[in-house]
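During the practical work, I worked with a single protein chain and the tokens that describe its fold, as given directly below.
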Amino acid sequence: MGGTMDGTNQQRRRGDTRQRIQDVALELFADQGYEKTSLREIAERLDVTKAALYYHFKTKEEILVSLFEDLTRPIEDLIEWGRQQPHTLATKQEIVRRYSEALAGAAPLFRFMQENQATVRELRIGEVFKERMLRLRDILIDPDAELIDKVRCVSAMFTLHAGMFVLQDVEGDPEDKRKAVLEVATDLVTQAHQGA
């Protein structure tokens, strides 16, 4: 076995452990609340020692912040991509589509954020998310657009957010619901662009 090969496998395994810690922690945070969850419980659920957990994260705050950073990285990447694109309708539609996917990928985290707003405020995760939302909004909105078209663009983003929470209790296949929400958000952006 070559040294490099071993190194990558080890790294991948280590990466998986980190992700498993995040997944289990988020599950526990969601089930019993962030405040009531201890590092010891996370270690027990994973069947690892507290020392093994410590190797990756010193506090549960670190776990939550890392979860937020990892799960919202696609949004950050989308903002960077969007800034370099022409202000065309196709760009805006693609931004809405990718944003919908990014939100779907981070749905458990956003549910947690919705239900644990005090913790989110304390760790400033909410502020970071809001700042990203504003940067995304600025890419979607044409600077010289009519007010009503600016409202349409912002509404498109909120439609995607609302789709994650408000439609949870509505009957239907989750993927069908996501597509319906995406269609409405895309319609809003399209309408706003035609107004431009």
